[in-house]
Amino acid sequence: MRTSNHLIGLVNFLTFLLSIPILGGGIWLSSRANSTDCLRFLQWPLIVIGISIMVVSLAGFAGACYRNKFLMWLYLVVMLLIIAALIGFIIFAYAVTDKGSGRTVLNRGYLDYYLQDYSGWLKDRVSDDGYWGKISSCLRDSGACRKIGRNLNGVPETADMFFLRRLSPVESGCCKPPTDCGFSYVNETGWDTRGGMAGPNSDCMLWSNDQSMLCYQCSSCKAGVLGSIKKSWRKVSVINIVVLIILVIFYVIAYAAYRNVKRMDNDEPAGEARMTKSHPSHFHL
Questions:
Q1: Cα-Cα-Cα-Cα dihedral sign, residues 190, 188, 201, 180
Q2: Which segments cross the bilayer (predicted)?
Q3: Which of 35, 189, 199, 252 has CA atoms 20 to 30 A from the CA of 139?
Q4: Residue 214: left if φ>0, alpha if ψ -120 to 50, beta else—which one?
């Protein structure tokens, strides 16, 4: 009985520790939402799941310490719901970021991003005019494009140096015109539009050297945000999958230990001490 309680307590403590990377992933997404991805609702499910695991683990730990079977039972029921919610979040994260990625460009280190390569709920959410207004404003405020400039010993980088850079999806999609526009490089966020190719890409008409405009209204910028979100979610999802596997193992162990505690309690006659059972009294004639 005591061994089973100790095991349940240990499992709950380890489960509490497992909530930290989940909560950390949600906080990291939150920081990205304020600076890079600019989507402010995606992190909340993870934060809620992480906090829920912490609270439920503490309840289960208290139940094991004080031999409170109700708290142990509550831990098992709620933790099962949390595991189901975490599975649902992982499936959702992969489903909405399944399609779309950057395209390789000849003689370029960075990728170009096109909105038509993406599809589904997340694309519709980002592309919505009302919602994109908030995202583009967030991107401007974050200064993502101001940070793209580089100087080497006080000398601005050349076009050849810039073309070999590995830009982030937002930097590539929002801070420069699409490569197929054929504009000439002046600096990282300044391009000579004279002599550009009159191609089918409507973003070429939307590009502006005005530093408050750039390509923030371009489809490539929306695609860049989607590409950034995909990278962020995939990193967090890998951690969540590992945590989920360990969490399921711990849950099975805790459930087996709880069953053992319940069985031992049911087998023990009411009001009879365990010491009495171990050393039965002898009758003297």
A1: positive
A2: 6-29, 41-64, 70-96, 238-258
A3: 199
A4: left
| 78 CA to centre of own chain | 22
How high is the mean pLDDT of the chain? 83
State the pLDDT confidence band at 95, using cuts at 50, 70 and 90. Answer: confident
Residue 253 amino acid letter: I
Q: Tell me which residue of 170, 134, 169 sits closest to 39, measured CA to CA.
A: 134
Kindly give, in sequence order, each residue whose CB lies less than 8 Å from that of residue 145, ignoring residues fewer than 6 positions away: 139, 171, 174, 175, 189, 211, 214
User: pTM of the prediction?
Assistant: 0.79
d(CA 220, CA 176) in angstroms, rounded, equals 10
Q: What is the DSSP string of 100-127?
A: --PEE-TT-SSEE--GGG--SHHHHHHH
208, amino acid identity: S
Helices 44-65 and 69-96 sit at what angle, rounded to 10 degrees? 160
The answer, yes or no, to whether residue 237 has pLDDT greater than 70, is yes
Tally of CB atoms within 10 A around 249? 12
Cα gap 82→46, rounded to integer Å: 11
Answer for the pair 8, 257: CB distance below 8 angstroms, yes or no.
Answer: yes
Using the predicted structure, report yes or no on whether residue 199 has a pLDDT greater than 70: no
Q: List the alpha helices (DSSP H) in 36-158.
A: 44-65, 69-96, 121-127, 129-142
Contacts of 216 (CB under 8 A, 6+ apart): 136, 139, 140, 174
Domain spans of the chain?
Answer: 1-99+231-264, 103-225
Q: How far apart are CA 179 and CA 212, in angstroms?
A: 20
Bridge partners, residue 155, by sequence: 152
| Residue 4 one-letter amino acid | S
